TrEMBL record:
Protein name: FAA hydrolase family protein
Keyword Repressor: no
Organism: Meridianimarinicoccus aquatilis
Keywords: Hydrolase, Metal-binding
GO MF assignments: hydrolase activity; isomerase activity; metal ion binding
Keyword Coiled coil set for record: no
Fumarylacetoacetase-like C-terminal domain ranges (all copies): 75-281
PANTHER family named in the record: FUMARYLACETOACETATE HYDROLASE DOMAIN-CONTAINING PROTEIN 2A (PTHR42796:SF4), FUMARYLACETOACETATE HYDROLASE DOMAIN-CONTAINING PROTEIN 2A-RELATED (PTHR42796)
Amino acid sequence: MKYLVGATPDGTAVFAVTGENAVNLTALDPAIGPDLMALITTPGLADAVAGKIEGAPSVPLASVTPALPVAEPGTIICLGLNYTDHIKEGGYEIPDYPALFMRGKNSIMAAGAPLVRPECSDKLDYEAELMLIVGKGGRHISEANALDHVFGYTVFNDGSVRDYQRKTHQWTPGKNFDNTGAIGPFVVTPDEVPAGAAGLKIESRVGDEILQSSNTGNMIWSVAQTIATISEYTTLEPGDLIAMGTPPGVGHAKKPNPRWLKPGEVVDIEIEGIGICSSPIVDEKDFVASVAAE
């Protein structure tokens, strides 16, 4: 199944994507609610509503404004340095344990929403990433069973403010500016992609300019390994988000000059079989003014 959480005149709803159209599942069964959490936490709910989709009213996919797949994720854990060539372009040594960091809720937003370049820096970078949504939680999850804990996969742009990322040995500042992490718009269930979402083309673009192009099969730590590793130290819960790192080609490593995102551009992150996450780039002052005018 391919899901889309999006805005409607009656509030946020969960849609099933069928080609270029979308069926409002929340309207078919109010138990589904305004985001994916009910489907994540209620076994059998997806199967119950699936039988109602055929012949149900639909709307054009383009008419749905995306919202976050999980409105209030408990934990957002991101994996850094997970593609060998990206590690080399950043000047790091290849680690023997994944570089893990966390994002706060104010740093993320839905696909299609503005990605905000902050007033204090012009070094806004892009990072194309696979993201998974935890279905079944747990602690000390084995690698062999880890994929059973995945509800679905989506697309993530880990927008990074590079000068702030490098101010300390911890990456927290550069990875947590408000409205810099775009998620979505689609979530696909594991049966729609290869095991662990491996072997999928992953790309970032601005217009016809290809910025990154790689394959999720090139990840050092697989989805299963990452879940097992993280659950060694913390209990994963339904609806948690895990981002799987970015391939080479990021802006700060471009030669001879870095390639920063600029207001007026639209950056697209695409993962084969999942979808495209598009974000218009805006300056913080313009974003604040637009919000104030609403």
